[in-house]
């Protein structure tokens, strides 16, 4: 290492002392290992130039002694010491597949230091040098950034909280007034030992104290400006606008049908677990029975449960988009149950019906049926004239103890789906069936929970158990729509798409208003290459429950697979409008933005999803976004988080392999792709025809060098999903990887014509070799 750098140098405000292995700024101090010191000095000696991986390894370890992995760890240590960030580097920039570059010119101690005895008053530096030494430029820049951020936050948050207009005006004037105060404080003051004193312009001391001066100047200026603006407003008055200006984006207008109703969660008056079970069961059963009434639109259980009991009528109307709603309370005392119900007009808040039931607990099912009958009678003016009496559903009523156990299982399924919650649900269903083995609804519940367990664990044993559970349910009660809907879900997960469609159609024959069956039918139709029928089915589901976010989410996913990303975005916007805490909605919205090429809007949507509840799928998509943005380290970190959350997800391993490959870690990439293939094979053993799985397998085979199988697999995927632009995009990747440029460009043009984002095509590192091909440029420009 050069002796002049060994004696120390500055990187901006940071002082690097190689002989001591230390980095400091006057406020904090970090230590570096000997290897980290050697790498940093090597970068400093070549500041502004790209230093290859090999050069840095030679500098620190000697020729052929180090590895890229060790170098990566050292770079991470240096970044930590410098408080640098890979996504927005201040000091060290990563050049993928090339090396690293120091972007700050180092200043040697010998060039920087000045004799102590020359201060104060030895010389009079110029105005620009004064501004630098006193940190005025740094304070000004920091204040402008913070001030802009404060105004932006106030613009968004204050409007959401319905603050009056004068609050935003006050904040804006405060930020403007504080700027000259911050500049003045930074010019005259420095911080020593916690005290503010006049600056003596010693560059050695001022450099080390600049951060504290900047911090105090900015904070103090805002406090002083706040007092001054408050006094000005009190005695003179600020100029407030007479009209309000809305900063919210327009929200979708959703219809409210006159024959629509919701059943809100019933209030648990005594707070006991037993009462909660009965209250939730009553709500679910009433919703199920009302949904079978022809001409009556009933809000889903999942949507109505997002509101609290006794919610205000305007909130119910805005959230669920219904004309009427039923609310009530349940109280248990010994062997008696007391239920109060009210039917309310959402537009006026007036009661249309109020009824109290005080009976033995064993009469629970009679109370449920009477509540349903009274509700339908009160709504008869909104229903077709052909409706006479509500026909009870063809169902088997269990003993009350069995019903309570079954309800415990349903409550677990209503929670966010995890292996743990579905496992608990299965335990409750098993307990119910131990008491009454002929309870078809419990068998159907087991079937649905087992299918979800399979999708999470990819263990085919769950499918065998699910098939047995659905068969028992069907044998016991073939007239129960939830049984056929569960069977349809099972068939879809095992690749029997025609059988899935038939099962859901049978569920709809029994109950034409079963939205779950409609969503299952539409997915089967999509997989059977019947896109027009699938879209009609989805829009029918939305018409039945205009406040059900799940129906809009399903339509968005359908449009997503059709390459209609802008339309998909509209559906996902509706999802988060209906439920602004919906993690899946924000994650899907972000993915739609990303595939539409709007990366800037996608990133905050992903951040919102992670903020609400970190989920594996969100981290996988976030990693893909960073991949297309070229932030490979951030992409790898996101995908590693997804793998830690669920190690058996083939998509996370496949995308992780891509990151490793483009970062130059070929061996590790191959291991990741091999792991992805192993996991995906387990899924394909159960559903060998799933198009998205075939697309993933084809790319994995290509990256593992299996040329012939990769081409055969992607051809199968294209035949299975000819309208999905992603199938053609993957085909282009595969052909390009194998050197068939002509075939790659043909498939790539088809993908773009079918709606695949040209922005994403341009950002794909695997297409770097096509950048100078005129045909590739024509695809990007759409000519």
Structural overview:
The structure is a single chain. This protein has 783 residues and is α+β, with helices and mostly antiparallel strands. The chain is 62% helix and 10% strand. It has 35 helices and 16 strands. Strands 11, 12, 13, 14, 15 and 16 form a six-stranded mixed β-sheet that branches. Strand 14 (322-333) and strand 15 form a beta hairpin. It is globular and about 95 Å long. The two termini are 55 Å apart.
What is the number of beta strands? 16
Largest sheet: 6 strands, mixed
Radius of gyration: 33 Å
Number of helices: 35
Q: Mean pLDDT across all residues, rounded?
A: 81
| Percentage of residues assigned to helices | 55-70%
Low-confidence stretches: 114-123, 191-211, 240-250, 386-391
Write the layout of secondary structure elements.
Layout: H1 3-6, E1 9-11, E2 14-17, E3 22-24, E4 29-31, H2 34-45, E5 50-52, H3 53-61, H4 68-82, E6 92-95, E7 99-102, E8 107-108, H5 109-112, H6 127-133, H7 136-160, H8 165-188, E9 189-192, E10 195-198, H9 203-235, E11 257-263, E12 267-268, H10 273-291, E13 297-298, H11 301-304, H12 313-320, E14 322-333, E15 336-345, E16 351-360, H13 364-378, H14 400-414, H15 419-435, H16 440-457, H17 460-476, H18 481-493, H19 497-510, H20 515-527, H21 531-544, H22 549-561, H23 565-578, H24 583-595, H25 599-612, H26 616-629, H27 632-645, H28 650-662, H29 666-686, H30 691-703, H31 707-720, H32 725-737, H33 741-753, H34 758-763, H35 774-781
Parallel strand pairs: 11-13, 11-14, 12-14
Antiparallel strand pairs: 1-2, 1-8, 2-3, 3-4, 5-7, 6-7, 9-10, 14-15, 15-16
Helix pairs in contact: 2-3, 2-4, 7-8, 7-9, 8-9, 10-13, 10-14, 14-15, 14-16, 15-16, 16-17, 16-18, 17-18, 18-19, 18-20, 19-20, 20-21, 21-22, 22-23, 22-24, 23-24, 24-25, 24-26, 25-26, 26-27, 26-28, 27-28, 28-29, 29-30, 30-31, 30-32, 31-32, 32-33, 33-35
């Amino acid at each position: 290492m050069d002796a002049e750098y060994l004696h120390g140098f500055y990187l901006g405000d940071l002082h690097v002392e190689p002989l001591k292995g230390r980095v400091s700024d006057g406020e904090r101090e970090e230590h570096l290992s000997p290897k980290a010191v050697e790498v940093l000095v090597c970068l400093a000696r070549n500041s502004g130039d790209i230093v290859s991986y090999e050069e840095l390894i030679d500098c620190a370890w000697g020729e052929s002694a180090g590895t890229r992995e060790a170098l990566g760890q050292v770079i991470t240590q240096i970044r930590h010491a410098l408080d640098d960030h890979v996504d927005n580097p201040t000091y060290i920039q990563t050049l993928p597949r090339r090396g690293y570059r120091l972007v700050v010119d180092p200043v040697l101690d010998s060039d920087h230091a000045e004799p102590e005895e020359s201060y104060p008053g030895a010389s009079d530096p110029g105005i620009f040098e004064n501004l630098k030494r006193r940190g005025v430029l740094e304070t000004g820049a920091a204040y402008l950034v913070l001030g802009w951020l404060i105004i932006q936050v106030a613009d968004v948050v204050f409007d959401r909280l319905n603050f009056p207009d004068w609050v935003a005006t006050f904040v804006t004037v405060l930020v403007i007034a504080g700027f000259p105060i911050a500049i003045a404080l930074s010019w005259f003051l420095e911080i020593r030992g916690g005290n503010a004193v006049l600056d003596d312009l010693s560059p050695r001391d001022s450099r080390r104290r600049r951060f504290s001066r900047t911090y105090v100047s900015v904070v103090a200026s805002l406090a002083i400006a706040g007092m001054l603006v408050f006094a000005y407003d009190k005695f003179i008055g600020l100029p407030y606008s007479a009209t309000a200006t809305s900063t919210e984006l327009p929200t979708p207008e959703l219809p409210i049908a006159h024959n629509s109703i919701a059943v809100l969660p019933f209030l648990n008056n005594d707070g006991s677990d037993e009462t909660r079970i009965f209250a939730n069961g009553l709500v679910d059963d009433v919703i199920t029975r009302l949904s079978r009434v022809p001409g009556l639109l009933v809000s889903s259980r999942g949507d109505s449960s997002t509101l609290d009991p006794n919610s205000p009528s305007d909130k119910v109307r805005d959230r669920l988009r219904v004309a009427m709603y039923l609310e009530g309370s349940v109280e248990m005392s010994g062997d008696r149950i007391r239920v109060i119900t009210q039917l309310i007009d959402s537009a006026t808040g007036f009661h249309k019906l109020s009824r109290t039931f005080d009976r033995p607990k064993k009469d629970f099912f009679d109370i449920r049926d009477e509540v349903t009958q009274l509700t339908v009678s009160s709504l008869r003016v909104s229903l077709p004239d052909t409706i006479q009496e509500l026909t009870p559903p063809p169902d088997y009523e269990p003993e009350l103890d069995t019903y309570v156990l079954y309800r415990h299982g349903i409550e677990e399924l209503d929670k966010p789906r995890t292996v743990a919650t579905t496992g608990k649900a299965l335990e409750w269903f098993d307990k119910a069936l131990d008491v009454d083995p002929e309870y078809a609804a419990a068998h159907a519940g087991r079937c649905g929970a087992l299918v979800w367990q399979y999708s999470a664990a990819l263990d085919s044993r769950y499918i065998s158990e699910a098939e047995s559970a659905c068969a028992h349910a069907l044998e016991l009660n073939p007239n129960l729509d939830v049984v056929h809907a569960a069977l349809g879900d099972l068939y879809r997960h095992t690749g029997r798409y025609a059988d899935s469609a038939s099962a859901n159609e049978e569920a709809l024959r029994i109950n034409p208003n079963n939205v779950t069956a409609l969503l299952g039918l539409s997915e089967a139709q999509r997989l059977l290459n019947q896109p027009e029928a699938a879209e009609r089915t989805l829009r029918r589901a939305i018409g039945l429950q205009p406040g059900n976010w799940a129906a809009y989410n399903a339509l968005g996913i359908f449009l997503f697979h059709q390459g209609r990303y802008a339309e998909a975005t509209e559906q996902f916007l509706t999802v988060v409008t209906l439920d602004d805490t919906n993690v899946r909605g924000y994650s899907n919205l972000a993915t739609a933005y990303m595939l539409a090429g709007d990366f800037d809007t996608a990133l905050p949507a992903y951040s919102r999803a992670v903020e609400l509840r970190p989920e594996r799928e969100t981290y996988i998509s976030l990693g893909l976004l960073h991949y297309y943005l070229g932030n490979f380290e951030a992409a790898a970190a996101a995908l590693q988080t997804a793998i830690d959350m669920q190690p058996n997800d083939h998509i996370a391993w496949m995308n992780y392999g891509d990151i490793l490959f483009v970062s130059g870690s070929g061996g590790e990439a191959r291991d990741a792709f091999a792991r992805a293939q192993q996991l995906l094979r387990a899924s394909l053993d159960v559903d060998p025809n799933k198009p998205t799985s075939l697309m993933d397998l084809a790319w994995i085979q290509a990256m593992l060098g299996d040329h012939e199988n990769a081409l055969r697999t992607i051809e199968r995927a294209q035949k299975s999903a000819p309208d999905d632009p992603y199938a053609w995009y993957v085909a282009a990747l595969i052909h390009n990887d194998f050197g068939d440029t002509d075939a790659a460009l043909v498939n790539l043009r088809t993908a773009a014509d079918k709606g695949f984002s040209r922005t994403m095509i341009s950002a794909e590192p695997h297409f770097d070799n096509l950048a100078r091909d005129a045909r590739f440029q024509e695809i990007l420009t759409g000519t």
